[in-house]
TrEMBL record, chains A, B:
Keyword match Cell membrane: no
HTH tetR-type domain segment(s): 23-83
Molecular function terms from GO: DNA-binding transcription factor activity; transcription cis-regulatory region binding
Protein name as it appears in the record: TetR/AcrR family transcriptional regulator
Keyword field contains Transcription: yes
Pfam families: TetR_C_11, TetR_N
Region feature Disordered, mapped onto this chain: 1-24
Organism: Streptomyces malaysiensis subsp. samsunensis
Regions recorded as binding DNA: 46-65
Length: 205, 205
C-alpha cells in the first residue's frame, strides 16, 4: 500500500486552499489527474507523475491541494458534469427523474474509475475521507435540500423514517443491478426504481 | 489479469459435480480455499497452491469443481453459517429481523473477503458468473420464497412493484453505510432500515 508522498511539514497550512491558478489551468490539471488515474489506478498515481504530466512543480500541486487524496477527489468533483444543486422541478418525483436523466452519462463514464477508487479507499483512509468530504457529502447536502423542499411542499411527512436512507436506496439501485443481473443501471430501470422503491418508502407515491 | 489454469478439454464434462470426497474432507478443502483467498486474494490464488495446501492432486480438484471460480464460490457457499432457507417465523417483519440477527456475524467475518471478490469479479467474468450462480441466486431464490409466503398471507400485494427490488434495497443498506457514514452496518441500524425502508416500500409497514 502506497501512501501520499506529500511532505508532512505543511500538512495543516496547505488545508487553506487558495487558487492561484486560472480556471482553465485548474481544469487541465483535473483532467490530467483523471487520465492518469484511469491509466495507473490510485495506488500507482504519484504526485511526481501528476507534476510531470501537467508540467507543474510539485510545490504548486501541494500549495493547491492538501495531498494526493484531495487532488483526486477535487478532480472528480470538478469534472463531474452533473451537480444536484441545479435541480428544482417543483415536485419530488420530477426532481428525482431529472437526476436520473442527467446522471446516466456521468455514471457510464465514471463507473470503472469510481469502482477502482471505492476499492482503493478501503486501504487508504485519507482517500476515503477526501472522497467523503469533497464528493459524497456535498451531493448528500444537495439531496437533503431537495428532500426538504418536498417536506415543505407537504409531499413527505417531516418525521418519515426513510428520509434518513435515501442515499442508501440510491446506492442499492446502482450496485445491485450489475451484481445481481449483470447489467448496468439504465434510465428505464432507474425511473422504475424511483416509483417502486424510493417514493413508496418516503410515503410520497 | 490471471485466468483459471484449468485445462479446457474437460470444461463441460466437469460441470456435472459428483462428490467423491467425504463431507469432512470437502469442508477441509473449502476452509483451505478461504484461508488462501484471505492470504493472497483471488488473482493470486492458483489451483496449484490449493492442491499443495490441501495435499490433493489438481486432478481431484478439477474432478470436483469446474475450475477456480467455482471452487471459490462453492467454498464460500458451504462455509456460510447462515442460509435463508431455514427462516420462517410466520411474518415478513419477523423473517427479515431473523435474517439480520443471524447474519451480522457472517457479515463481519466475510466483508473483507467479499469486497476483494466483488472487485476481482469485475475483471473475471467466470468468477462473476460462479458467484452469481452458486452464491447470489440461491439466496435470492430463498428470499423470494420468504416474500411469496408474505404475499400468500396477504401482507404484500402480489403486484407490488418493490417486490422486484428487495435485494437492491438490502444491498444499499450494506454498502451505503461504510461509504457514507464510515461505519459498518450493525443490528440496530439494519433493524431500523427494515422498518424505515423495506417494509414501507413493500406496503407492508
Amino acid at each position: 500500500m502506497r501512501t501520499t508522498d506529500r511532505p508532512t511539514e505543511d500538512r495543516d497550512t496547505a488545508r487553506v486552499r487558495r487558487s492561484r491558478l486560472s480556471p482553465e489551468r485548474e481544469r487541465e490539471l483535473h483532467e490530467a489527474v483523471l487520465e492518469l488515474l484511469g491509466e495507473v489506478g490510485y495506488d500507482g498515481l504519484t504526485m511526481d507523475a501528476v507534476a510531470a504530466r501537467t508540467r507543474s512543480s510539485k510545490a504548486t500541486l501541494y500549495r493547491q491541494w492538501k495531498g494526493k487524496p484531495q487532488l483526486v477527489a477535487t478532480a472528480l468533483r470538478h469534472t463531474k458534469p452533473v451537480l444536484l444543486e441545479g435541480i428544482d422541478t417543483g415536485s419530488l418525483r420530477g426532481d428525482l427523474r431529472e437526476i436520473v436523466r442527467c446522471s446516466e452519462q456521468a455514471h457510464e463514464r465514471d463507473s470503472g474509475l469510481m469502482r477502482g477508487l471505492a476499492h482503493a479507499s478501503h486501504d487508504n483512509p485519507d482517500l476515503h475521507e477526501a472522497l467523503r468530504e469533497l464528493l459524497i457529502y456535498p451531493e448528500i447536502d444537495a439531496l437533503n435540500v431537495l428532500l426538504r423542499r418536498a417536506v415543505d411542499r407537504g409531499e413527505i411527512a417531516p418525521d418519515r423514517p426513510a428520509l434518513n436512507y435515501v442515499v442508501h436506496m440510491v446506492c442499492g439501485a446502482f450496485i445491485a443491478r450489475p451484481l445481481v443481473e449483470g447489467r448496468q443501471p439504465d434510465q428505464t430501470y432507474l425511473l422504475e426504481y424511483i416509483d417502486a422503491v424510493i417514493l413508496p418508502a418516503l410515503g410520497a407515491a
